[in-house]
Amino acid sequence: MKYKTIYIVDPVRGERIQLSKFVMQEFFTVMSFVSIADCFKPSQTLHCDLVIYVLRTGKCETKHLLNIKKKFKQLPFILRITENSPEADLTKLTESGFTCLHQATDNEKVRELVLGFLAPEGLPPRTEVPHPVPIGIELGPPQPLK
Asked: What domains sit in the chain, N to C, each tagged with a CATH number?
Protein backbone atom coordinates (compact mmCIF):
# COMPACT_ATOMS: atom_id res chain seq x y z
CA MET A 1 0.00 0.00 0.00
CA LYS A 2 1.20 3.47 -0.87
CA TYR A 3 1.56 5.89 2.02
CA LYS A 4 -1.14 8.59 2.08
CA THR A 5 -0.94 12.13 3.46
CA ILE A 6 -3.74 13.81 5.40
CA TYR A 7 -3.83 17.53 6.16
CA ILE A 8 -5.84 18.63 9.19
CA VAL A 9 -6.74 22.32 9.44
CA ASP A 10 -7.92 23.45 12.88
CA PRO A 11 -6.86 26.60 14.76
CA VAL A 12 -7.43 24.94 18.16
CA ARG A 13 -4.22 23.07 18.97
CA GLY A 14 -5.61 20.56 21.46
CA GLU A 15 -8.49 19.56 19.21
CA ARG A 16 -6.15 19.33 16.22
CA ILE A 17 -3.81 16.95 18.05
CA GLN A 18 -6.70 14.83 19.32
CA LEU A 19 -8.16 14.50 15.81
CA SER A 20 -4.70 13.64 14.44
CA LYS A 21 -4.34 10.80 16.93
CA PHE A 22 -7.86 9.63 16.18
CA VAL A 23 -7.32 9.18 12.43
CA MET A 24 -3.67 8.09 12.64
CA GLN A 25 -2.82 4.77 11.02
CA GLU A 26 0.54 3.20 10.17
CA PHE A 27 0.18 4.00 6.46
CA PHE A 28 -1.04 7.59 6.89
CA THR A 29 1.11 10.66 7.35
CA VAL A 30 -0.87 13.30 9.22
CA MET A 31 0.12 16.96 9.10
CA SER A 32 -1.76 19.65 10.97
CA PHE A 33 -2.12 23.32 10.18
CA VAL A 34 -3.67 26.40 11.78
CA SER A 35 -5.07 27.84 8.55
CA ILE A 36 -5.92 26.60 5.06
CA ALA A 37 -3.39 29.04 3.55
CA ASP A 38 -0.56 27.23 5.35
CA CYS A 39 -1.47 23.89 3.74
CA PHE A 40 -0.90 24.83 0.15
CA LYS A 41 2.20 27.00 0.28
CA PRO A 42 4.69 26.29 -2.52
CA SER A 43 7.25 25.10 0.05
CA GLN A 44 5.18 22.00 0.96
CA THR A 45 7.03 18.91 -0.23
CA LEU A 46 4.38 16.29 0.52
CA HIS A 47 1.50 15.67 -1.85
CA CYS A 48 -1.81 15.85 -0.01
CA ASP A 49 -4.35 13.05 -0.51
CA LEU A 50 -7.13 14.34 1.79
CA VAL A 51 -7.94 17.52 3.74
CA ILE A 52 -9.90 17.59 7.00
CA TYR A 53 -11.15 21.13 7.58
CA VAL A 54 -12.61 21.86 11.02
CA LEU A 55 -15.16 24.67 10.89
CA ARG A 56 -14.90 27.23 13.70
CA THR A 57 -16.70 30.56 13.93
CA GLY A 58 -14.42 33.47 13.07
CA LYS A 59 -11.35 31.30 12.51
CA CYS A 60 -12.04 28.55 9.97
CA GLU A 61 -15.12 29.24 7.90
CA THR A 62 -16.15 28.06 4.45
CA LYS A 63 -15.37 31.49 2.96
CA HIS A 64 -11.66 30.76 3.51
CA LEU A 65 -11.95 27.70 1.27
CA LEU A 66 -13.06 29.82 -1.68
CA ASN A 67 -9.62 31.44 -1.91
CA ILE A 68 -7.55 28.30 -2.59
CA LYS A 69 -6.31 27.42 -6.08
CA LYS A 70 -8.45 25.35 -8.41
CA LYS A 71 -6.04 22.39 -8.48
CA PHE A 72 -6.40 21.95 -4.72
CA LYS A 73 -10.19 22.01 -4.96
CA GLN A 74 -9.98 18.62 -6.71
CA LEU A 75 -8.82 16.96 -3.45
CA PRO A 76 -11.31 15.18 -1.18
CA PHE A 77 -12.34 17.53 1.64
CA ILE A 78 -14.02 16.51 4.89
CA LEU A 79 -15.71 19.42 6.67
CA ARG A 80 -15.77 18.68 10.40
CA ILE A 81 -18.75 20.52 11.90
CA THR A 82 -18.36 21.64 15.52
CA GLU A 83 -21.21 22.58 17.85
CA ASN A 84 -20.68 26.34 17.44
CA SER A 85 -19.57 26.37 13.80
CA PRO A 86 -21.42 28.21 11.06
CA GLU A 87 -23.60 26.25 8.64
CA ALA A 88 -21.64 24.85 5.68
CA ASP A 89 -23.09 25.80 2.30
CA LEU A 90 -22.01 22.83 0.17
CA THR A 91 -23.77 24.07 -2.97
CA LYS A 92 -21.79 27.32 -2.94
CA LEU A 93 -18.54 25.38 -2.49
CA THR A 94 -19.45 22.94 -5.27
CA GLU A 95 -20.23 25.82 -7.60
CA SER A 96 -16.80 27.33 -6.86
CA GLY A 97 -15.03 24.18 -8.08
CA PHE A 98 -14.89 21.66 -5.24
CA THR A 99 -15.45 18.14 -6.56
CA CYS A 100 -15.48 15.97 -3.43
CA LEU A 101 -16.97 17.43 -0.23
CA HIS A 102 -18.31 15.55 2.76
CA GLN A 103 -19.52 16.66 6.18
CA ALA A 104 -18.88 14.99 9.51
CA THR A 105 -20.32 15.92 12.87
CA ASP A 106 -17.99 13.83 15.04
CA ASN A 107 -14.53 12.26 14.98
CA GLU A 108 -15.94 8.77 14.43
CA LYS A 109 -17.56 9.86 11.17
CA VAL A 110 -14.30 11.59 10.14
CA ARG A 111 -12.37 8.35 10.66
CA GLU A 112 -14.97 6.40 8.69
CA LEU A 113 -14.69 8.84 5.76
CA VAL A 114 -10.87 8.84 5.90
CA LEU A 115 -10.72 5.05 5.71
CA GLY A 116 -13.30 5.07 2.93
CA PHE A 117 -11.21 7.47 0.83
CA LEU A 118 -7.69 6.31 1.57
CA ALA A 119 -8.13 2.60 2.28
CA PRO A 120 -11.34 1.44 0.55
CA GLU A 121 -10.10 -2.16 0.35
CA GLY A 122 -9.13 -2.14 4.03
CA LEU A 123 -5.87 -1.52 5.80
CA PRO A 124 -3.00 -3.91 5.12
CA PRO A 125 -1.63 -5.98 8.00
CA ARG A 126 0.84 -4.28 10.32
CA THR A 127 4.44 -4.49 9.19
CA GLU A 128 5.92 -4.69 12.65
CA VAL A 129 4.71 -6.85 15.49
CA PRO A 130 4.69 -5.05 18.83
CA HIS A 131 6.86 -6.59 21.54
CA PRO A 132 4.70 -8.45 24.11
CA VAL A 133 6.70 -7.13 27.08
CA PRO A 134 7.77 -3.49 27.23
CA ILE A 135 11.54 -3.13 26.96
CA GLY A 136 13.27 -2.30 30.23
CA ILE A 137 10.89 -4.14 32.51
CA GLU A 138 12.50 -6.97 34.39
CA LEU A 139 10.15 -9.89 34.90
CA GLY A 140 10.82 -12.04 37.89
CA PRO A 141 8.82 -14.06 40.36
CA PRO A 142 5.85 -12.20 41.84
CA GLN A 143 6.65 -10.42 45.09
CA PRO A 144 4.42 -11.05 48.11
CA LEU A 145 2.28 -8.13 49.27
CA LYS A 146 3.30 -6.66 52.61
From this structure: 4-118 (3.40.50.2300)
